[in-house]
Design a protein that fits this description.
Structural class: alpha/beta
Strand content: 5-15%
Helix content: 40-55%
Number of strands: 5
Radius of gyration: 17 Å
Strand order of the largest sheet: 2-3-1-4-5
Distance between the termini: 9 Å
Oligomer: single chain
Shape: globular
Order of helices and strands: EHEHHHHHEHEHHEH
Number of helices: 10
Length: 215
């Protein structure tokens, strides 16, 4: 990848691996745009959803919103994995399908990539932007034990709760990708670089990525 020309780096990561922070630090090191939560905000505006409504809808399995939110929204708390309230009912959009969400997500990601060099964390970037020239796709992973420890600490959960959350998010995100990309997000052939964070700090991971880029 040539950083003297416009480039795109996509970072797919497992919950609890630290991939989001790696992406942010990498963008800072390269002095380029970091795209993370802005996609969420754009989709919220386009489909008239609120942050509160999104948080309550994250755990639903039987509607389009579960696929969408597991891909684009921040990590849910355990208390949000079950049940819903009046705001959920008020914001439910049966007229919107997961295909509509994927189409909108694709349009937004392509627009971000077209504007200039950037690092895009998560989402379906590795697939949506597959035809972009000068692109690097990275997958950030870690052992289940490492992820459970991190999620437990950051979310103030028990190890058992963190494990349940991790398993749910893993399944839902992979289902979403399979439905629309036709591949598993765990197929390492999707990426040029894979990093296991078990023995790496986020700063060291950024160093390794930069070394890879420089060749």
């Amino acid at each position: 990848m040539n950083t003297s020309e416009k480039f795109v780096i996509t970072i797919s990561r497992e919950l609890g691996s630290g991939g989001r922070t790696v992406g942010r630090k990498l963008a800072e090191a390269l002095d380029v745009r970091y795209s993370d939560k802005e996609l969420v905000h754009e989709l919220m505006k386009r489909f008239n959803l609120t942050v509160s409504g999104i948080e309550k809808l994250k755990g639903e399995k039987k509607t389009w919103i579960s696929d969408f939110l597991q891909m684009v929204a921040p990590v849910p708390k355990m208390s949000l994995l079950t049940g819903y309230d009046d705001k959920y009912v008020a914001e439910f959009r049966p007229d919107v399908s997961s295909a509509d969400i994927f189409k909108a997500e694709s349009e937004i990601l392509k627009a971000i990539a077209a504007e200039g060099s950037c690092v895009i964390a998560g989402r379906s970037g590795f697939f949506v932007l597959r035809d972009c020239p000068n692109k690097l796709d990275i997958f950030i992973t870690a052992s289940r034990e490492h992820r459970i420890e991190r999620v437990s600490r950051k979310q103030n959960l028990t190890p058992e709760q963190a494990g349940i959350l991790i398993d749910k998010i893993d399944k839902d995100r992979n289902t979403y990708i399979k439905n629309f990309a036709g591949v598993s997000r765990y197929d390492l052939r999707n990426y040029q670089l894979v990093l296991n964070m078990d023995t790496l700090s986020e700063d060291k991971a950024v160093e390794l990525i930069l070394s890879y880029i420089k060749g």
